Structure formats: structure tokens, C-alpha cells
Amino acid sequence: MASAAYKRVLLKLSGEMLGGPQGGGIHQATIQRIASEVAEAYRLGVQMGVVIGGGNIFRGVAAASEGMDRASSDYMGMLATVMNALALQDALEREKVPTRVQSAIEMAEIAEPYIRRRAIRHLEKGRVVIFGAGTGNPYFTTDTAAALRAMEINAEILMKATKVDGIYDKDPMKHADAIKFENLKYMDVLNKGLKIMDLTAVSLCMDNQLPILSFNLEREGCIKKAVCGEKIGTIVQ
Question: What DSSP line would sit under 126-147, residue for residue?
């Protein structure tokens, strides 16, 4: 039986992934598949925190570029992440995985407020903790929220699940000659301007020596392979 290489991880999920083939909203079959992947890794005994984006429902940056007040659009994006967090919670509990949703913006009727010590206690008790509402502040992305939460819960690695199987020198969806990197240094990502996470998130990980693993969520068993330390995707350290 496979064994986990990490005791505690932070998984960053793109909101766009939840849209599935319909490209937006919440596609039930897709979110249930993701939940089953998370459950498979969880059953290895890994303590898991999850940060989820909201791009399948609302993108604050896109709305701001069209004239909406940036702070207002970012708050709307944060609310979208809470909707996704609740959807993932429901899907995980169908997989018999105990969960808690914590929100950086207080909304007592549907989620706990984010409290670091309480989050760690949930992890120690074997619950998957889903962090919603980003950092609770405008002008910060969910990538930065993922890096921040990973540091706060003392995660050993930040795992970013995307639609591509690692980090390339250019967009592999548009360029057939794109070259994949197996290993990278933090400064390589910053100097080359590689689009793995925003610069604030990468800098935060670099300052605190938190490894980043980028891999393809659409491949079966990917999260389990990642927590078992198998060689998938691209690692930044």
C-alpha cells in the first residue's frame, strides 16, 4: 500500500476547474471527481488544508479591468470562493470525509471564522479544512491566500492543481514547442516571469522556504501521487 511522503499539505484548487466542460458555474460531476481524488489522498493519513479560487463564478480582476471598483470586485470574488468551498465540502462529505469550512470574512451561519489555532486543531483531528474568502482583503489573490494559509498551518508543501502537467517556459496550450521544467528555483520563476502563481505568492514561499508543486488535476490519481512524493509535475524549491 502506498504511504504518504508528507504529514500536512495545502492544496490550491483553481476555481475554473470546478466549471468542468461547461466552462463556468459548478459542474457536479467534476467537483465530485475532484472530491474523490482528495478523499483518496486523505485516506493515506495526510492532514489536508484546501484553498479554492472563485474564477468559475466571478473574477474580480476581470471586473475591475472593465471599470468596477477593484475593492468591490475583489470582495465579490471572495464570496465566490466561499460558494465553491461549500460545494466542495458537500462533495467531500459524500465521500465520507469530515470537513470544516473557514472563511476569512465572517459569515457565521454558513462557515466558521478563520482562526489559525482552530484550523490546526481540525487538521489534527483528521478533518479536511477548506479555507474560503481568500485572505479577507482586496488586492490579494487566492494564490497568495494559499501561500499564507500554508505557512500558518505549518504545511510541508503547497500543491497547486491546474490544467497542465507542470510549469513550462510558455503556454503549452498555445505553443507546441513549449518546454517543461522538472525542477525550478524560486528566483527562476520570478526572473523568467513564469505564470505558476502571482509574484507575491512565490515571494512569500521563497522567504519561508515552502516548496511549491504544480501538477495536472485532470489526471487520475494525481493528488494521491503528489502526497506520496511521486515524480509528477514541476517542483519549485
Answer: T-EEEEESTTSSTT--HHHHHH
Q: Bridge partners of 236?
A: 184, 212
Helix, strand, or coil (residue 89): helix
- With bands split at pLDDT 50, 70 and 90, how would you rate the model's confidence at 1? low
Q: Assess whether pLDDT exceeds 90 at residue 218.
A: no
Which top CATH class is 8-236? alpha beta
- Domain ranges across the chain: 8-236
DSSP code of residue 209: T
Judge whether 145 and 84 are in contact, CB under 8 Å. no
Q: Please count the CA atoms within 13 angstroms of the CA of 103 that sit on its side-chain side.
A: 20
How far is the C-alpha of 155 from the C-alpha of 225, rounded, in Å? 17
Which burial class, exposed, middle or buried, applies to 119 when counting CB atoms under 10 A from its CB (0-12, 13-18, 19+)?
Answer: buried
Q: Is the pLDDT at 143 greater than 90, yes or no?
A: yes
Give the strand pairing for 47-52 and 128-132: parallel
H helix runs in 43-135, sequence order = 60-65, 70-94, 116-124
Q: Give exposure, 167-188, as e/b (b: 16+ Cβ within 10 Å).
A: bbeeebeeeeeeeebeebebee
161 three-state secondary structure: strand
Q: How far apart are CA 42 and CA 97, in angstroms?
A: 8
Nearest alpha carbon to residue 162 among 219, 78, 89, 202: 219
State the cell numbers at 16. 475554473
Residue 185 DSSP SS3: coil
